[in-house]
Each structure stands twice: as C-alpha cells, then as structure tokens.
Design a protein that fits this description.
The chain is about 25% helix and about 25% strand. With about 350 residues, the protein is α+β, with helices and mostly antiparallel strands. It folds into 2 domains: about 190 residues, ApbE-like domains (T-fold); about 100 residues, ApbE-like superfamily (T-fold, Orthogonal Bundle). Strands 2-3-7-8-11-14-15-16-18 form a 9-stranded mixed beta sheet, covered by helices on one side. A 4-stranded antiparallel beta sheet has the order 1-9-10-17, with no helix packed on it. Helix 3 crosses helix 7. The N and C termini lie far apart (about 45 Å). Keywords: Cell inner membrane, Cell membrane, FAD, Flavoprotein, Lipoprotein, Magnesium, Membrane, Metal-binding, Transferase. InterPro entries: ApbE, ApbE-like_sf. This is FAD:protein FMN transferase.
C-alpha cells in the first residue's frame, strides 16, 4: 500500500468515549489502512454497511489525488513540474492547496506546505531519519515559500515557481478527507457517527441519546490509551499535533517531525502538543500547526479565530486552554495542571 507522508504533524490518537444510553443503538464500524494510518468509521444509525464502504472510497480518492508517494497523483505531478509548467488538478486538490495558502497567511508562514525539501532531508518517521548538516538545510530553505505557489482558478491549475520546490499536503489533506467522508455519510442519512483517521477525529451530530461525545486527549509520551484530559463536543473536529509519536534520538537529543519552516529544524518551543477543536477537520488539521508558533503566539491566534478552541500542553505538564473551553475541559491525570493566562 502506498504511504502518505505527513508534512508537519502526525495526528495523535484521540479517544472517544462513545457509550450511549440508548441500548437499541448498535453501531456498525470498520477499519482500513489508508493515508498512512488506520482509519475507522463508526455509525450509530440503522444504515447498510455499504455506507461505510462509500466513506472509505472517499478517503481512497483523496489519497490517490494528494499522496506525494503515488507517482501519478496530482500532487506528484505538481512537484515534477516545479519551475516548468502549471498542472491542471481536480477541484478537490485545488481547494486543499488554496486553503493551505489561506492558513499559511493566518499562521504567519509557520504552516507551509512547501516545506517538502526540508522534510525530505530529515526523513523523520522512516528508517532513513538523520540530522542533516547546517549547509544542507541552508541550501534547501530558499525553496520553502508558500507565496511561490501560483494558482489559476479559472483553469484550475497549480504551479510551483522554482525548480526543486515540492509541496506535501499531509498536514491538511487528512482533515479534508474526514470532511469528505462526513459529506458522504450525511447524504446517505447518517446523523450520529465518528470518523477517526489516525486520531484525526470528526464527529457527526451527537451521541444517539442526544448527549455530547466525550473525547480524551492522548497523554504525551505515554502508551496509547492513556489520556490527560477530556473535552465534550457535539458536531466538531478534534485534531492533535504533538512531538511524541514521530521522532528519533541522536547523541541524547530528541528530534521530532514538527519542523519550523523558517529554520529548517524541529520546532523548539517547550510544547508537547496542541489540540484544535473546530467545525471542520480541514481547518483543525491546518490550525494544529500553530504548535510551531509556540504557546503565546499560538494561543493568540486561536483566541482570535471564531469557532476555534485550542488546548496547549507544555513540556513541564502545564495545560493552557482558550477561553471558550472553560467549563468544558477537565484534567484527568494528576500529573498535569490546568493553568490560566
């Protein structure tokens, strides 16, 4: 199976406590490997299994269009033709790239899908992971600039201005895939469901009994299944970006996969993770990269965006939340402390 390389962040496991008081609700669920992760769709309505199959088809369609490791994907064609010519793409791919540029502006360039050349130097998360030399990083940094992506909406084309540039939609495409699955499921009558793409979670409606879903957030550097806090959500996306699932150590130093596109090195800002709660998964994916901005700047961005909430975890086990989460988030692990800014 083709792998889907994640750009800045891997979306960490988020646990859903989905028990329902309605005992007649027997969910149907299926799990498949796609987008380089395990994707689970769970529906709490009486629908045929074909509904799940249609959801997985939507995921596979996005992967075929946007994976950087599928040679004939639209993104691969864009990268092959960097500095040469524009490439016509589907409305899906055009939309995702346009949204990525939008969020690059909001996040002041700390989210940048053109960081591909730097990602390829580090190869974190593969058996080729290494610490590149300062000279290698310096040589590739000029290729990282989302402003050098040229979009032509009329002709539906995308072009990278300079040879050697490459984009990787791994930091946003998974969220778009979740949104597409939700669209498919809703069209087929689904009113209560959980879409979990490797921990990138999107809920449809509430639980069948009308109460909110309870979502547990993964405890950094602990086994999967251990969570430090719980948030309650209705129809929302919950996406976490953190340093603790894709990293390697060299000479006693930890190098994680969340790269700063300005320096070419892993972000060094005393954060363990950032969780975004918002209406759509594509927005949650892209906004999770405020991790790179650090606690103060990231918190400012999240507070100023309507319909967006965030949870920041620091490396000294302190937790900071946006104002809209007060009363709707609680710490369950005594090692962690909820702070106020």
């Amino acid at each position: 199976m083709k792998k889907f390389i994640v750009l800045f962040s891997i979306f960490l496991l988020i646990f859903i406590f989905s028990g329902c008081s309605n005992k007649n609700s027997q969910p149907i669920s299926d799990t498949k490997f796609a987008l380089d992760t395990y994707c689970t769709l769970t529906v709490y309505d009486k629908v045929p299994k074909k509904v799940l199959d249609d959801g997985f088809k939507a995921i596979e369609d996005i992967e075929k269009k946007m994976s950087v490791t599928i040679e004939d994907s639209e993104v691969s064609e864009i990268n092959k033709n960097a500095g040469i010519r524009p490439v016509k793409v589907s409305p899906d791919t055009f939309y995702v790239i346009k949204k990525a540029i939008h969020f690059s502006e909001i996040e002041k360039g700390y989210f940048d899908i053109t960081v591909g050349p730097i990602v390829n130097l580090w190869n974190i998360g593969t058996d080729k992971a290494r610490v590149p030399s300062a000279e290698e990083i310096k040589a590739k940094l000029p290729l990282v600039n989302y402003k050098n992506i040229v979009l032509d909406e009329k002709n539906m084309t995308v072009m990278l201005k300079d040879k050697g540039m490459s984009i990787d939609l791994g930091g946003i495409a998974k969220g778009y895939a979740a949104d597409k699955v939700a669209e498919v499921l809703k069209k087929e009558g689904v009113k209560h469901a959980i879409i979990n793409l490797g921990g990138d979670v999107l809920t449809i409606g509430t639980k069948p009994d009308g109460t909110n879903w309870r979502v547990g957030i993964q405890t950094p550097f602990k086994p999967r299944g251990e969570y430090f806090g719980i948030v309650e959500v209705g129809e929302k996306a919950v996406v976490t970006s953190g340093i603790y699932e894709r990293y390697f150590e060299k000479d006693g130093k930890l190098y994680h996969h969340i790269l700063n596109p300005f320096t070419g090195y892993p972000a060094d800002n005393h954060l363990y993770s950032v969780t975004i709660i918002t209406d759509t998964s594509i927005d949650g994916d892209a906004l999770a990269k405020i991790f790179v901005m650090g606690l103060d700047e990231g918190l400012k961005v999240a507070e100023n965006l309507p319909g967006v909430e965030a949870i920041f975890v620091t490396d000294d086990k302190k937790v900071y939340i946006t104002s809209g989460l007060k009363g709707n988030f609680r710490i369950t692990d005594p090692e962690y402390t909820l702070m106020t800014k």
